[in-house]
From TrEMBL, chain A:
<dbReference type="InterPro" id="IPR036291">
    <property type="entry name" value="NAD(P)-bd_dom_sf"/>
</dbReference>
<dbReference type="InterPro" id="IPR013154">
    <property type="entry name" value="ADH-like_N"/>
</dbReference>
<comment type="similarity">
    <text>Belongs to the zinc-containing alcohol dehydrogenase family.</text>
</comment>
<feature type="domain" description="Enoyl reductase (ER)">
    <location>
        <begin position="25"/>
        <end position="379"/>
    </location>
</feature>
<dbReference type="GO" id="GO:0003939">
    <property type="term" value="F:L-iditol 2-dehydrogenase (NAD+) activity"/>
</dbReference>
<dbReference type="InterPro" id="IPR020843">
    <property type="entry name" value="ER"/>
</dbReference>
<dbReference type="Pfam" id="PF00107">
    <property type="entry name" value="ADH_zinc_N"/>
</dbReference>
<comment type="pathway">
    <text>Carbohydrate degradation.</text>
</comment>
<dbReference type="InterPro" id="IPR013149">
    <property type="entry name" value="ADH-like_C"/>
</dbReference>
TrEMBL record, chain B:
<comment type="similarity">
    <text>Belongs to the zinc-containing alcohol dehydrogenase family.</text>
</comment>
<dbReference type="GO" id="GO:0008270">
    <property type="term" value="F:zinc ion binding"/>
</dbReference>
<comment type="pathway">
    <text>Carbohydrate degradation.</text>
</comment>
<protein>
    <submittedName>
        <fullName>GroES-like protein</fullName>
    </submittedName>
</protein>
<dbReference type="Pfam" id="PF08240">
    <property type="entry name" value="ADH_N"/>
</dbReference>
<keyword id="KW-0479">Metal-binding</keyword>
<keyword id="KW-0520">NAD</keyword>
<keyword id="KW-0560">Oxidoreductase</keyword>
<dbReference type="InterPro" id="IPR013154">
    <property type="entry name" value="ADH-like_N"/>
</dbReference>
């Protein structure tokens, strides 16, 4: 275990050393020890035990940046976490020491108009653990222990595992997306991208009473997994074509739309959850949607895309942005603990687990793969830091 | 050009004890449990957080609720069990700011949004902080109000007044925000017909906001002719005097005399009176929206059949929430709404009880009590 002498104060009072994974450059993760003080009056101290890895963590790992956001100082990654409360601040009555909690890691300002309207996910001053957007960077959750505001630590019922507790973060994205989609019962839904977020959106579409959920991906195994595990009802495997001219691109997009319409037999869909960020998928989404329908822009990929905009606008198809989540944890907890028959088994999304801080580099390597050495799909890699 | 209000305040002779330095005397007008008033010194409030500001209260309007606590000692479950400072419709000058404050500066004149929610419950986080169960609202027991020299608020509950708006008008931003909240709940849009019951300050402000939002017909209804005459000059396009007959008959008269044969798109009741509510429902258009702004008796006889057959929407309206104060300030800034006309009486702090008595006798429209040490006869506008 490599030890770096760097220290960072993360609270007041007597410091204790805790282990942390810190990114210093492209693919350059070091294990360090940080000073952690006692939690402030409204904070709790949480021993982080399960952390799922996300595309953004991978991006920082592989590029030391995420799009326009450049890492400016050593950064701990991880933001999809759950753990156990080990200490509470003087004003905290809930949660209590020993409680198992899911961590909501985005802290908004609570003062601006957006926060007051309930849209704190798009607060301009929001600080999000593991994101290099704000500076000094708000360090991520791949640490043995962190101090965090109590009101953003959501208590887990005993029936919900810590792995599932970590899944509540991406599930929040799916919940927030489904709210903004305003899916009616009996609607038809198309999902582009059968990774963790796409599968969770498919699950939410089912929970919202969709009549038919069609899922599309370039990987046959992923969409097979989706249908087999009741995340979706129908599947299409998108051909790996690479059209170059705009005419060819739009023609390909129309082809994909035709595949959707015939594969499921439902014609144009009511709503699309675009979870890839790939231009051809959004183009295909526009051709796949019925007039008056809605396309949820969840995937973050190419920031600039060429779109058949009149095909959307003239049919009043709304393109709706979705960014993270707000007010989703309580609903997510209720959902996964309520035995809802429409909800597929979300624990199946955790496909690989790595133990301890030494396992983190292996976890990152695995998270970038399509399949593991045994041929299993890689959907969500979880790092278990119960024993750091 | 008359001197600015703030300059004049700095020159004015303080009415009470001036030997103590600034920031050391916080005089308050206190209601006791048995309904008597007295003046008392209270500690100057400390800033509770680095995001709070300290305001010198310069003008406070009186509301029916303030008078009600005085005369009855309670409103619903809120009971005056210990001495309570009343007042919540205030404007003042920022005299000190916490170290994290960035949106207001010392010396700025601000309207006060006097209710601070918890910011962590589902209502707060979900965008409806006016429904927060832990709301700390000025002059609602046990929280003291603003009839004192100083008051503290978080910076985001202080709204800078446009330069052409006087401090007295600033005190009306609070009731104006109530009207804005109701109008937004009603979904008032251009070309609509709006029926407002009650031509007191809230009803009048609802008329003004409705006009500002583009309503083409704004009908003010009251039992008092003098109030209606004012409404006609202020913001109503037409008026109707409630007659001594049934609510249905009054509704029928409204619909014929005002050429609202289909009924009004929106009805706002600012009275809380059963007969007005009933009349309003009868005069509501099919598919229309009724907003209950006025608080009256808790249980009434209600023509629910009308609501059903018309598929009307009956909405409660409680205080104000996200964006309401901001819109109120903007309406004043753009001069789409004027509030100066509503200020009929102003009293120095030493005569606060007279103000309460006057309001209880329904004198004028809106009475203002100046803050301690602020004298009357200061100019009300730079215009």
């Amino acid at each position: 275990m490599a030890v770096n002498g760097a220290q960072q104060v993360n609270g007041v009072g007597k410091g204790e050393e805790v282990v942390a994974s810190v990114l210093h450059g492209v693919k350059d993760l070091k294990i360090e020890h940080r000073q952690l003080g006692v939690p402030e009056a409204s904070e709790v101290q949480v021993a982080v035990q399960a952390t799922g890895l996300c595309g953004s963590d991978l991006h920082y790992f592989n590029h030391y940046r995420n799009g326009d956001i450049i890492v400016q100082e050593p950064l701990t990654l991880g933001h999809e976490s759950s753990g156990v409360v080990t200490a509470v601040g003087s004003q905290v009555t809930n949660p209590k020491v020993g409680d198992r909690v899911a961590l909501e890691v985005g802290l908004p300002c609570l003062e601006c108009d957006l926060c007051k309207e309930g849209r704190y996910n798009i607060c301009k001053s929001l600080r999000f653990r593991s994101s290099a957007k704000s500076f000094p960077h708000f360090q991520g959750t791949l640490q043995a222990r962190i101090n965090h505001p109590a009101v953003y630590c959501h208590k887990l019922p005993s029936s919900v595992s810590l792995d599932l507790g970590a899944i509540l973060e991406p599930l929040g994205v799916a919940i927030h997306g489904s709210r903004r989609a305003a899916l009616k019962s009996g609607s038809t839904v198309l999902i582009f991208g059968a990774g963790a977020v796409g599968l969770l959106c498919a699950a939410m579409a089912k929970v919202c009473g969709a009549k038919t959920v069609v899922i599309a991906d370039i990987q046959a195994e992923r969409v097979d997994f989706a249908v087999k595990n009741k995340f979706a009802d129908a599947k299409i495997v998108v051909p790996m074509k690479r059209p170059q001219t705009i005419e060819d691109k739009l023609s390909f997009a129309k082809e994909v739309a035709e595949m959707v319409k015939s594969a499921s037999g439902i014609g144009e869909v009511d709503a699309v959850f675009e979870c890839t960020g790939v231009e051809s998928c959004l183009q295909a989404a526009i051709y796949s949607t019925r007039p008056g329908g809605r396309i949820m822009l969840i995937g973050m990929g190419s920031p600039i895309q060429t779109l058949p905009i009149s095909a959307a606008a003239l049919r009043e198809i709304d393109l709706v942005g979705v960014f993270r989540y707000a007010n989703t944890y309580e609903e997510a907890i209720k959902l996964v603990s309520s035995g809802n028959p429409l909800l597929p088994d979300l624990s199946k999304l955790v496909t690989q687990r790595f133990n301890g801080f030494d396992g983190i580099p292996g976890a990152f390597a695995m998270a970038g793969r399509v399949k593991d050495d045994e041929g299993n799909l890689v959907l969500k890699v979880v790092v278990d830091t119960t024993n750091p | 050009m008359a001197p600015s209000l703030v300059e004049a305040i700095n020159q004015v002779t303080v009415v009470s004890d001036t030997t103590k330095p600034k920031f050391q005397r916080n005089e308050a007008f206190v209601l006791q449990e048995k309904g008597q008033f007295h003046y008392a010194d209270r500690p100057v409030p400390k800033l509770p957080s680095t995001k709070h500001v300290l305001i010198r209260v310069l003008a406070t309007g009186l509301c029916g609720s303030d008078v009600h606590y005085w005369q009855h000692g309670q409103i619903g479950q809120f009971v005056v069990r210990q001495p309570l400072i009343l007042g919540h419709e205030s404007a003042g000058e920022v005299v000190d700011i916490g170290s994290s404050v960035t949106t207001v500066r010392r010396g700025e004149r601000v309207a006060l949004e006097p209710g601070v929610p918890c910011q962590t419950c589902d209502y707060c986080r979900g965008g409806r902080y006016n429904l927060c169960a832990l709301m700390q609202f000025a002059a609602t027991p046990p929280h003291d109000g603003t009839l004192s020299t100083y008051y503290t608020l978080p910076e985001d509950f202080c709204f800078v007044l446009p330069p052409h708006i006087s401090i007295e008008e600033g005190a009306l931003v609070e009731p104006l925000s109530i009207a804005v909240h109701s109008a937004r709940l009603a979904g008032i849009t251009t070309g609509q017909s709006i029926l407002v019951f009650g031509a007191g300050p809230i009803g009048l402000l609802c008329c003004a906001v409705a006009r500002a939002l583009g309503a083409s017909t704004v009908l003010s209804v009251d039992i008092e002719q003098s109030r209606l005459a004012f409404a006609r000059t202020y913001a109503a396009t037409a008026t109707y005097r409630m007659e001594d007959k049934s609510p249905e008959e009054n509704a029928a008269s409204i619909m014929t005399t005002s050429q609202l044969s289909e009924g009004a798109d929106v009805v706002i009741d600012a009275t809380g009176a059963e007969s007005c509510i009933s009349c309003g429902v009868h005069a509501l258009r099919r598919g229309g929206t009724f907003v209950q702004t006025g608080l009256g008796t808790s249980n009434i006889v209600f023509p629910v059949g009308q609501i059903c057959s018309k598929e009307g929407v009956y909405k409660g309206s409680f205080r104000y929430g996200p964006g309401d104060y901001k819109m109120a300030i903007e309406l004043l800034n753009l001069k789409k709404v004027g509030v100066k006309e509503l200020i009929t009486h102003a009293y120095e702090f030493s005569r606060a009880e007279e103000a309460f008595e006057g309001v209880s006798r329904r004198q004028g429209i809106k009475s203002i009590i100046y803050g301690p040490g602020v004298q009357n006869a200061l100019i009300t506008s730079s215009e």
